[in-house]
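Q: What would this chain look like folded?
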Amino acid sequence: MQISEQYIESIHFDKLKNLKDLTLNFSDTRLTAIMGVNGAGKSTILHALACCYKPLDGETREDYKFSYFFTPNPYALWNDSKFEVTHSYKLKGEPKRSTISFAKDERWTPHYNRRPERHIEYFGIETCVPAIEQEHTNSFISFATDEELKDSSKIISSTGYVLNIAYDNLKYLKSKKGKTYLGVSSEQNGTYVSLSMGAGEQRVFKILSALYSVPKYSLVLIDEVDLLLHTNALRRLIKKMYEIANDSKRQLQIIFTTHSILMNELRDYVGIQYITQTSQKTLVSNYISSDSIQDLMGKSEKPIKIYAEDDLSKTIISQICHSMNCKRYVDIFTFGPASNSFTILSGFELDNKLSENIIAVLDGDVYKTDEEKLTQIKDKITGQAFNTERNNVLSHIIQYNLPNNYKPEKWIREMIITTSSEIIPNDNEIKQVLTNIHSVDDDHKYINDAIERLDYDKAIGLSKIIELASKSEKWNDYVQPVITWLQQHIEHI
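A: My prediction, written as structure tokens:
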């Protein structure tokens, strides 16, 4: 059969190890980062994905089976494990979509031969072990043959870009005992083989060599992509993987695990699936900030915790706290799209960690009604017996008094430019710039455009703009829900 353009759109886990009632979506990009704290189940997801396809007809790659990753033993038989994968593909040029269910009772079903075909390249943690540590000899190693790698110029160029090393040669070297090693040379480091490479350098070569050699439409799985790499190298590796994956000649799907919060900076290249374990289910967000991660890991020390959608809202809340003289009591975190607030709060509720001093503040332009909010919460806390828990989550969500047909950025602009000249002089530079921005292609851009025109650092620009907006007669009504909530909770500290 002529099958092509395979792509995993989503995977849903009923139960697998510690994963419970979890759905991950991969539709947004060819690169997906699975994130979460240690023990969240990131590697389990990769292991399940590795087993979803059988090798292409005639190829000799490793045929990953569930026993490879989920070996039965007296303490773990994996019975009652169940998950399903929805994938798209073309059959003889016709677009198709199907869902395959995998389950374990006495044995895993379906039979391995009934899986669809696709090339899979899997990089586990073991690929971080330096080649020299895998050797079991202290005798002299001699090489019988050497061979140029296909696309070697692309591999050394890309690896050099990632590691900032000017490589000029790359070969396969085969020892007399049949083992194969990478041989490279550079002006900086001379000529050497993988036995002398650092583990990070070795792994980058392995990953990029595979990306240039795997068949079109392959699935590439990488566990802990950030291991052994400094931040700049990781940033460049992600950008290079994105470039290769989107090459029309390759069209790869790459899914990797990572702890690096750098991924939020790279959201133009990477889709994020941040998983959090609770006692009831596994939750997922498509965005998580560094300070939210810290909070989820229990590193926050201030008694009041407020979650905001973005940096603009965070700055607004900071201004409110400053005016109320309570900043020393409040940690403010961002959670990204409004939908993530329901995930975070539901996770706290299911783990009995949703204290009275935690609140999420929505911008007020989506999920305006309690009914809309409850619909989202029901998606996170399922089952008929959890009405009390869902209502408790709802009680921890407030929103600004945003006028209809306004986005927050547009309303902030409106507040500033309509404030009388006695309060905000007409020659105020920020007021002038905002007044002259008459139209944008997205209402969210009013503030960012102003910051760019003023050539401010973003944080400084937001602070100056919000301080100015707080002088408007419309300000107190806009932020009153936050003021009221803070007044009620500060007095009990």
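DSSP finds 15 helices and 19 strands in the chain.
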